[in-house]
Design a protein that fits this description.
2 copies of one chain form a homodimer. Chain A has 239 residues and is α/β, with parallel strands linked by helices. The first copy, chain A, folds into 2 domains: 5-165, MoaB/Mog-like domain (Molybdenum Cofactor Biosythetic Enzyme, Chain A); 173-237, 2-Layer Sandwich (Alpha-Beta Plaits), CATH 3.30.70. Chain A is 40% helix and 26% strand. The first copy, chain A, contains 9 helices and 11 strands. Chain A has helices at residues 13-16, 24-34, 49-62, 80-87, 96-109, 115-119, 152-162, 183-196, 224-237, and strands spanning 5-11, 38-45, 65-69, 92-94, 122-124, 128-130, 139-142, 145-148, 173-179, 201-209, 212-221. In chain A, the strands form 3 sheets. Chain A has a 6-stranded mixed sheet, sandwiched between helices. Chain A is elongated and about 65 Å long. The mean pLDDT of chain A is 94. At the A-B interface, helix 1, helix 2, strand 2, helix 6 and helix 8 of A face helix 1, helix 2, strand 2, helix 6 and helix 8 of B. Strand 2 (38-45) of chain A pairs antiparallel with strand 2 (38-45) of chain B, so a sheet runs across the interface. Chains A, B: Residues 7-169 form the MoaB/Mog domain.
Chain lengths: 239, 239
Amino acid sequence: MANPTAAMLVIGDEILSGRTRDANMHYLAGELTKHGISLAEVRIVPDVASKIVETVQGLSREYGSVFTSGGIGPTHDDITADCIAEAFGKTIGVRDDARALLQAHYDKSGQEFNEARQRMARIPEGATLIENPVSVAPGFVLENVYVMAGVPSVFQAMVASIMPTLTGGDPVLSQTLRIERGEGEIAGPLAELAATYSDLSVGSYPYQQNGAYGANVVIRGTDGQRVDEAMARLAELFA
Amino acid sequence: MANPTAAMLVIGDEILSGRTRDANMHYLAGELTKHGISLAEVRIVPDVASKIVETVQGLSREYGSVFTSGGIGPTHDDITADCIAEAFGKTIGVRDDARALLQAHYDKSGQEFNEARQRMARIPEGATLIENPVSVAPGFVLENVYVMAGVPSVFQAMVASIMPTLTGGDPVLSQTLRIERGEGEIAGPLAELAATYSDLSVGSYPYQQNGAYGANVVIRGTDGQRVDEAMARLAELFA
């Protein structure tokens, strides 16, 4: 059976302007792969409500689950929670349990729990909170959409807290052979190998190092014995 | 007048599996911003022909230009050129000028110009070549889609060669103020500032450093005087 599919939606002008280099996509990709969930598409969109709403609706229909990062803080450009509510036709308002978490946090640190901070307790109706052990303000899950923070340390903590709740598939096993020849030289036999092992994924990733070309050939699949077999054949071909 | 819009399409299983961290998106974002072109959306899709074709068609209709990276090498998983041809209903075949470039390169290096390498001369009808000073195999432009390599050094060289051919808008000017207070404290006044300067983009990007919270507030716009004014007001607010 095919593994469950997922999509990621990165929200934020700062990524698209080149100001910030996104780190969350690469992190999530690795975690999902380990968990046997296939990340099938990623989209990066700006802080534009109509775009976020329409993208969430599309991805939620197409994939088993959707993970978002960004736009859930206290400032005027944090519009993700409202957009998710709109995408599913839900109301949104400050929720008691989320407010209590934040209230306790700000009381303890002696900071004012002002209007802006209360915005972070706005949660769409019917959502489940995602714990944030780093900075308290929670993420949430609505339908099949997991809404998380953009700050990498917070995003990673949230991913850690949801991961055990996700239904994974068979872990994808991966083996890599580094071949010190140009891709053009290995392409023919490699295509035949890929055709023979069509139940596996055979990828070729070229590199250039000290002026020499080579390729990392990666064989991936859920059946360890098949991956081993294909790797042995690959090694024979390019010994 | 609004600046021209663009989208990027990153093609490759290795990005989605978490094996490789994409570097091209961040690079292109910075170059387009300098050139006054607004990167409005990014998508990352696997080496699946139907997905590539449908995504290229959608992005090409929605945005002024589309930039792709990945999938134009000699191996069996390099399917981008064929997908782009299909997306626009064009034929594709080995083209004489592209073949001549590659033939000369392999003759010079004493390597065989075999069938796999000839695949890199397959160019959709009506396309214009994009020069590749790093490893010769060209990219191409078809309609409003710029098709480039995934290897970062080659991608960057290709971007450098197309950039002068693109019609840019007004360069976007950007100023940043680092404010050593939590976002929750500055959010109220910041929202008012953003409303006053609604012709500019006012973004707040939180950070955490040595246990203290702060935010980089970035004001962006094409009118330098307005950006200066808004920055002066921002500095006053949080002096």
